[in-house]
């Protein structure tokens, strides 16, 4: 009964670490418990990072929406300004007031001359006329 003795093969370091990690032995080690506050800090930091990214995207979308609204309001302003300029032209005003019975004058404006004395008597009714 001669049995052949085979040498014991050493388990590779990588496969042992992988076996420990998948088996759950890695989490029960003391080094993991010592680093638990740091791991929690990293998890909280990751949550804040994700939240900040969502907030930045939301702000960016709001800015783009406001830009589009501003562009639309600018177009409305230009259109309204053009309509006002067209309706305030002399010929357009004359057309509109003709319906009310008013007519455009054909006489040129007169220049009124006055003296300081006549202005003073016109403004102060208590002064005697000379």
What key attributes describe this structure?
single chain
Task: Give a concise summary.
The protein is mainly α and 130 residues long.
SSE layout:
Layout: H1 13-23, H2 30-34, H3 36-87, H4 90-98, H5 116-123
Biggest sheet record: none
| Cα radius of gyration in angstroms | 47 Å
Whole-number count of domains: 1
Shape: rod-shaped
Distance between the termini: 162 Å
Task: Note poorly predicted spans.
Answer: none
Helix-and-strand structural type: mainly alpha
Number of strands: 0
Protein described:
With 130 residues, the protein is an all-alpha fold. Helix content is 65%, strand content 0%. The protein is built from five helices and no strands. The mean pLDDT is 84.
């Amino acid at each position: 009964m001669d049995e052949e003795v085979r040498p014991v093969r050493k388990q590779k370091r990588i496969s042992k670490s992988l076996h420990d990690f998948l088996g759950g032995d890695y989490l029960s080690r003391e080094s993991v418990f010592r680093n638990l506050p740091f791991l929690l800090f990293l998890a909280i930091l990751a949550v804040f990072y994700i939240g900040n990214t969502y907030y930045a995207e939301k702000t960016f979308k709001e800015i783009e929406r406001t830009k589009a609204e501003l562009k639309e309001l600018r177009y409305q302003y230009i259109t309204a300004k053009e309509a006002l300029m067209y309706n305030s032209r002399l010929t357009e005003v004359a057309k509109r007031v003709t319906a009310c019975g008013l007519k455009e004058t054909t006489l040129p404006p007169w220049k009124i001359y006055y003296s300081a004395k006549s202005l003073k008597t016109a403004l102060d009714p208590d002064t005697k006329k000379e």
